[in-house]
Structures are given as structure tokens and as C-alpha cells.
Write a structure and sequence with these properties.
The chain contains 5 helices and 5 strands; from the N terminus they run E-E-E-H-E-H-E-H-H-H. The protein is α/β, with parallel strands linked by helices.
């Protein structure tokens, strides 16, 4: 059984989250500079069995595409071409960054840790993955 990998695409950084092989738990994995994401994914997929990718779909609260949506779509298409054997799914990512900030704050993290944008991206990717899992596995 392969893992599901979720990506919270950003222009500078991309948060990455992954399931366990049984697809029970979603965990933040890392944050990678966006320019290095494809190389990271190639290495990861060579070491771990990955079933599919979930890429966040940036939408405004009213459902219209966010400003970054076109770049996220292009990223998803590049991912599809690079890994044609892995299905690509899109998951609404509305509010995930705000929810991630709230979770980090509630965790009791110190001020410096709460300002860590890479941590926010990793937690947001985990939230995207949880939402995908809830909609498709549970």
C-alpha cells in the first residue's frame, strides 16, 4: 500500500505532508523551496511507495480561484507530467493556512516558532491531506 502525499504549493515554499502506509494518519513531512520540489519528490518516490498526490486548490471564501490558483494549476500539471504513474487530486485549501496558524498558537509554541512560515506551510499541507482523507477514506 502506498502513501498519499499532499502539497501546499506556494511561490517560495511548498509544504509537504504524507500519510502512513495504511492511510490512517496524516503528518506534516517538510517544507521545501518550490524550485526544489520536483527533485525532492523524485528522491522521496524512489525511497517510498507513493500512491497519489493531492495538491491544494487555492480558492477565495466565495469559491472563486485565489490569485495564486493559476500557478498552483501549472504546478499540478508539471507534477502530472513528471509522475504520470501517480494520480493527481486537487483539494480545496480554503482556510488551511489560518487554521495552521491557530493550531501552532494553541500548541503553546514560542513566538519565534509561530512566525516560522515553513512550519505553517507544513501544517497546512497536513490539513489539506486530512481533508482529502476525510472526503475519500472515512
Amino acid at each position: 500500500m502506498g502513501r498519499v502525499l499532499a502539497l501546499d504549493f506556494g511561490l517560495k515554499r511548498t509544504g509537504i505532508a504524507v500519510t502512513d502506509p495504511l492511510k490512517i494518519i496524516a503528518s506534516g513531512l517538510t517544507t521545501v523551496p518550490t524550485a526544489e520540489v520536483m527533485a525532492f519528490l523524485e528522491k522521496y518516490c524512489s525511497e517510498e511507495e507513493v500512491e497519489c498526490f493531492v495538491v491544494g486548490l487555492p480558492l477565495h471564501p466565495d469559491g472563486n480561484p485565489a490569485q495564486i490558483a493559476a500557478q498552483a494549476d501549472l504546478f499540478a500539471e508539471q507534477l502530472r507530467k513528471k509522475f504520470p504513474e501517480h494520480p493527481i487530486f486537487r483539494q480545496d485549501e480554503r482556510y488551511t493556512s489560518n487554521d495552521a496558524k491557530r493550531i501552532i498558537l494553541q500548541s503553546g509554541a514560542k513566538k519565534q516558532k509561530r512566525r516560522d512560515k515553513a512550519l505553517v506551510d507544513k501544517v497546512a499541507a497536513a490539513l489539506i491531506l486530512e481533508q482529502y482523507m476525510e472526503a475519500n477514506f472515512w
